[in-house]
From TrEMBL:
<dbReference type="GO" id="GO:0000049">
    <property type="term" value="F:tRNA binding"/>
</dbReference>
<dbReference type="Pfam" id="PF01336">
    <property type="entry name" value="tRNA_anti-codon"/>
</dbReference>
<keyword id="KW-0963">Cytoplasm</keyword>
<dbReference type="GO" id="GO:0006430">
    <property type="term" value="P:lysyl-tRNA aminoacylation"/>
</dbReference>
<keyword id="KW-0547">Nucleotide-binding</keyword>
<dbReference type="InterPro" id="IPR044136">
    <property type="entry name" value="Lys-tRNA-ligase_II_N"/>
</dbReference>
<comment type="subunit">
    <text>Homodimer.</text>
</comment>
<keyword id="KW-0479">Metal-binding</keyword>
<dbReference type="InterPro" id="IPR018149">
    <property type="entry name" value="Lys-tRNA-synth_II_C"/>
</dbReference>
<feature type="binding site">
    <location>
        <position position="425"/>
    </location>
    <ligand>
        <name>Mg(2+) 1</name>
    </ligand>
</feature>
<dbReference type="InterPro" id="IPR004365">
    <property type="entry name" value="NA-bd_OB_tRNA"/>
</dbReference>
<dbReference type="GO" id="GO:0005829">
    <property type="term" value="C:cytosol"/>
</dbReference>
<feature type="binding site">
    <location>
        <position position="425"/>
    </location>
    <ligand>
        <name>Mg(2+) 2</name>
    </ligand>
</feature>
<dbReference type="InterPro" id="IPR045864">
    <property type="entry name" value="aa-tRNA-synth_II/BPL/LPL"/>
</dbReference>
<dbReference type="InterPro" id="IPR006195">
    <property type="entry name" value="aa-tRNA-synth_II"/>
</dbReference>
<keyword id="KW-0436">Ligase</keyword>
<dbReference type="InterPro" id="IPR012340">
    <property type="entry name" value="NA-bd_OB-fold"/>
</dbReference>
Amino acid sequence: MSETPASDSAESAEPTVEEIAEQKQVRLDKRARMLAAGLDPYAIGLEITDSIAAVRARHGELDPDIATGEHVALAGRVVLSRNTGKLCFATLQSGDGERLQVMLSLAVVGEESLDRWKEFVDLGDHVHVTGEVITSRRGELSVMVSTWAIAAKAILPLPTLHKELNEETRVRQRYLDLIVREQARRTVRARAAAVASLRATFAEHGYLEVETPMLQTMHGGASARPFITHSNAFDMELFLRIAPELFLKRAVVGGIERVFEINRNFRNEGADSTHSPEFAMLEAYQAYGDYHQMADLTQEMIQNAAVAVSGSHVVTWADGTEYDLGGTWDRLSMYDSLSAAVGREITPQTPMAELKQLADAVDIEITHPLPGKYVEELWEHHVKGDLVRPTFVMDFPVDTSPLVREHRSRPGMVEKWDLYVRGFELATAYSELVDPVVQRERFVEQAKLAAGGDLEAMRLDEAFLTALEHGMPPSGGMGMGIDRLLMALTGLGIRETILFPLVK
């Protein structure tokens, strides 16, 4: 099979595996001929004076058949091409998706250069061109090429550009997704803008960014099942961290009173539209703060991120739906809202038998010894689905939150909130438990659960308790998934918001 150089067959079907293999061999043969002719198929040191976007910005409104007299040197990937004897046309695409036509005329580049273009250039190749900015007779902004070079020879063909990639291809070969689909490129830019905005908001409030260990001798800071590995150098079992919390609190003990980290967490659990085994997490702690102040900060951060991504508190999701992140967000009591939903008062003192009865009535199966788990599951069943606007769900059961300070006025509850946006949990915050005696008691209870087979229970962490015994000021702490923040801002699933997600 011989591949037509840089041909644009817009209506052709997707090539078969055999056809791709044949095309690859054709391109490998071209590479070999280039090398034999003394041409480098991966040239380096090519000067770039302008981006495609910059040329379009300067000359976007020219009349047809204009020669500007301006010469540029730029590069891009060939995504469309047409050869018509003495004149060749190609469309170059830059990494941001901007496109520009280039034209090669026999009269300008000469016969040898034009023949080499026809022989060697394929769709997908990166090429470097120099030439004058003009408009064609049809008014298309173009570069009339005077010199050109292949900057990187593509050995495999591009997918059909006018067809949607399937989801598996998008997540397994994200580089193709980025070449083909504008939404993929927008998502990467949105994530970068959102994270930059988060850092800017923290800086305005006097927070310092730090990094804490990914490999830990003891997993903690959350209720989750860890990934386990082994260090050959230390001959010891290690865990990929499930949360940075216990190290960030050490930083607060040491006097870094406003601290945050944006980094990766790993949890050996299920994967679905809102969960990934590896994910980006933001955690922050503020000495002399509490969960109310963390709610204020979190709302400000997310609203600032929305403006950075969309220019407004009203974001537009990928499906065209608008979602309003503006205003002051509701703060809803977990126990009070559950009581209203089931028609009877539910408190931390409600007997386990009554909670089980309520669960059985709606066919919720819960195999957990703690009444707080029943409260949370019942709340999710009866209340969660009715939340439309961003909502802070306040004051959780004490027995499901081992790192949280008890509520200052409601016994049996802790000062914790979860933020729900788009129907999923986006962030959580505590008034932190800083009493080392109570913290030890909570760890002991967690150890009992672990001994009973609970794989998510925390272990008793003596190193953390030692730090806490040196005195940690009363503090507020919060955590937010970066991937989920992008879900809230874009309306996409988690695998779309992660650039290179883990796939089976």
